[in-house]
Amino acid sequence: MENDKRQENVNLVDPRDKIPLSEKIIYGAADLFGGGQATMLSLLLLIFFTDIIGISAAYAGTVILVSKLWDAVSDPMCGIISDNLRTKMGRRKPFMIVGGILIIPALAFLFAPIQNLGSQAAKVAFAAAAYVVYCTVSTISQVPYMSMSSDISCDYRERNIANLIKLGFDMLAAVICYLAPSMLFEALKEGRISQTAFYLIIVFGFGLLFGAPLVIAGFVVKERAPYPAEKSRFDIKGWINSFKVKSFKYHILMYIGSFLSMDLISNLALYYVANVLRGVQLFGREIGTVFIIAPMMVLAGLAIPVYFILMQKKTKQFSYRAGIPLYIAGVILLAVYQTNWPAWIVLAAAAMMGIGFGGAQMMPWIVFPDTIEVAELKLGYRPTGNFSGIMTFSRKISTALAIQIVGLGLTWAGYQPGTAGEIIVQPHSVLIAIRIMLGVSVTLFLLMGFYASVRYKVTNKKLDRIRCLTDAAREGRELTEEEAKEKEALIKELA
């Protein structure tokens, strides 16, 4: 009877955990940076370094990948520091405010027009330094902000709604940061805008889009999850041990599989359109990235309600993988497309990809707070900072790895970089390399995410029971024999 009452109680939202709609929207809008900057960098950074600055593709990819060594230290450190911070504003929000303010200078450094700097070595050194600075600013804002997905409420239903709104802004940012930078870059390459105009739009336009919502959220959003009594300490071993939480390990693989695939597509998009689709026309004009990205992102957004219903009817992991087969089919169709085929096939492939990837993109951050609950059951505390640090680092490393894969693949295939206003016909080997990286690499990473989702076993019913058990631990209540056995079984299965 007592267990039934507790179960009934967890089905009600505690007023202290209720999040006002306006706060959910402000919280979600702060993800314009998280959702937009990774998309923009995946799409733009490598081709900016190769075709505007004049750095070889292999060097550019290596610079970005090696810079991630700093993130391997800074991300977990920032997670621990934000876990331990105690201020009147909270422990996450001061970082969001400072990080949001620093985004404009970080973008100014990263996209500085240094093509006349001198030697290749000088350009590489400058690019490496600029990227490290940018990643540090990203860490300062993103690790604490991602931790907020767990701290904003202790009720998973409230978190689900808040994180779904966050996903909507993530998708909006992705649409903006696919279309606008790709059109800007194409205009720059064709000489329709100056590099100064390109630079100012990227720095101030996107800097304000990314930074302002973070600063506002830092002043408005509340942290409702209780602080642990003991402060955390920076411990590499503890960071590595996070992967011993079974559900978190599979969650990370789902996350990497989804976003590394998207990063590869983003990195290849401009190269694919400029080289593989050269001369293909649709609606009386040559196909540009907008013909791929627009239908893909619009249909991905329209598919979100379908995946949300699937999440409620089935599970979050089922919703994650439901569209992956269609996603893979669209990617392969785009990879094998021949220029003598009807041009509408490109739109069809993009539409298939968009419908298919909605669930894979939407679920990882909705699943994240659930994984924190599982970890708390096993560890006795909420490792939010460690887990968000690893998530943020994983996102950055996936972007860097995608850039490195594309950079090395293009270099080995003999890619010849051009400059603004210059059009170079690439050798056939480059076209083959682009097709292989698009069709094979993306498919492999999507299959990795699909496999991980099958192994991820957390459900809402299990979360209700986990919440009861962790509440008992916080209250100092001794578990009944039945509850102790239940806890042991949940830990064995999930953690």
Which characteristics define this entry?
18 helices; 495 residues; Growth Hormone, Chain: A; two-stranded antiparallel ribbon
Give a structural overview.
The protein is mainly alpha-helical. The chain has a single domain (21-224, 235-458), classed as Up-down Bundle (Growth Hormone, Chain: A), CATH 1.20.1250.20. It is 78% helix and 1% strand. Helix 4 packs parallel to helix 6 (120-151) and helix 11 packs across helix 14. The radius of gyration is 23 Å and the shape is globular. Residues 1-10 have low confidence and may be disordered.
Gyration radius from CA atoms, angstroms: 23 Å
Structural class: mainly alpha
Quickly give the CATH architecture: Up-down Bundle
CATH topology: Growth Hormone, Chain: A
Task: Sum up the overall morphology in one term.
Answer: globular
Distance between the termini: 28 Å
What value does the average pLDDT take? 85
Q: Would you list the SSEs in sequence order as H and E?
A: HHHHHHHHHHEEHHHHHHHH
What is the tally of helical segments?
18
User: Could you give the order of strands across the largest sheet?
Assistant: 1-2
Spans where pLDDT lies below 50 across 5 or more residues: 1-10
Number of strands: 2
* CATH class membership: Mainly Alpha
Question: CATH-wise, what's the superfamily?
Answer: MFS general substrate transporter like domains
Overall domain count: 1
Give the biggest beta sheet. Answer: 2 strands, antiparallel
What share of residues is helical? over 70%
Amount of beta strand: under 5%
